[in-house]
Amino acid sequence: NNNNNNMAKYYGGVEGGGSQSQTVVVDEKGNILGQSSGLGTNHWLCGMDVCCERLDTMIAEAKTAAGLDPSVPLESCGFSLSGADKKSGRDAIIDTMMTKYPRCGKKINVCTDSYGGIYTASNTGGVVLIAGTGSNCRLINPDGSEKGCGGWGHMLGDEGSAYSVTYYVIKTLFDDIDGFKKSECDTTYAWNAFKEYYEVDNQMDFLDHIYAKFEKSKYARFAVKIAEGAQKGDKLCMASFHKAGVDLGRHINAVAPAISKDIRDSGLKIICVGSVWKSWEFMKGGFLETITKCSDVPRAVTLVQLTKIAAIGAAYLGSKETDSPITLDYASTTSVLYQGTLA
């Protein structure tokens, strides 16, 4: 059939987190034709069978939203999934999708959740720096080599995350009240915000929330109140975000020695993912000061945020398995948070 080359081609992409996932069906230019969302697709959390079943369901829903027949396979599907760090896990997902859910796509690519973000913003590599509930950092060079820092969760890491912004303030409050270490900043705003958020009157009442009923996402969301304090000029709240800026900068310094010559020559693009970046104005000083001190960090630095969902980058990576990869307009997938030359 000679018409095959002229027929429109469609591609699928999934950005899969631990608690929720986003799915797109796009055309050859990366335009979103259909979208769907669903539950988490981290196979360590939900199990391999459930993970693959959810992927199939979401792709089928996105096809329907795009006006396509869900039973007809897409050219390719790219899955950028939390928890897909090991090759054995990725291979198992591909194998299950090809045998059990062949309607999904003719070709399947599986990668970790960092990749979708990077490839939504750039096809020449960069660093993705995640500062949400937790934190994580990964450098991906144009040749595919990579280096990571962090991502070990709140017991061992999460520096620069909403979790650690909260921790800094609550720890300062408790140390100040005990007299273990007096706070250099006034604690009135933070103490009142803390009591209101947790509906407690004293330190003792809080123990239930942090031990028996600990909920990481609720704890991390207190960072929103800290951000409000920083906006009002509260010194303790501002200090917490300054520290987050320093810690996020240390992630960049950690991966910097592995940055390839291509990126050194063209300048470093840092893709900033997660809600903590909304408080960039309070982190900027600490962040830039920290990365400036590291000679391995290229002097030309651009921080960007995604304006499109990372499922598009996943779809792009899937399409690289085919003869006709998607061409994305990177100017439309990102907005610049900061651009400058380090001293």
Unreliable segments of 5+ consecutive residues: none
CA-based shape: globular
Distance between the termini: 60 Å
**What order do the helices and strands follow?**
EEEHHEHEHEEEHHHHHHEHEHE
> Which structural class do the helices and strands define?
alpha/beta
Instruction: State the helical fraction.
Output: 40-55%
Number of helices: 12
The radius of gyration is 22 Å
Sheet with most strands: 6 strands, mixed
User: What strand line-up does the widest sheet have?
Assistant: 8-7-6-9-10-11
Beta-strand residue fraction:
15-25%
- The number of strands is 11
How confident overall, as mean pLDDT? 93
Topology diagram in text:
Elements: E1 11-16, E2 20-26, E3 32-39, H1 43-46, H2 48-65, E4 74-81, H3 87-100, E5 105-112, H4 113-121, E6 126-131, E7 135-140, E8 146-150, H5 162-178, H6 188-198, H7 203-210, H8 216-231, H9 235-255, H10 261-266, E9 268-273, H11 280-292, E10 300-306, H12 311-319, E11 334-341
Parallel strand pairs: 1-4, 4-5, 6-9, 9-10
Antiparallel strand pairs: 1-2, 2-3, 6-7, 7-8, 10-11
Helix pairs in contact: 2-3, 4-12, 5-8, 5-9, 6-8, 8-9, 9-11
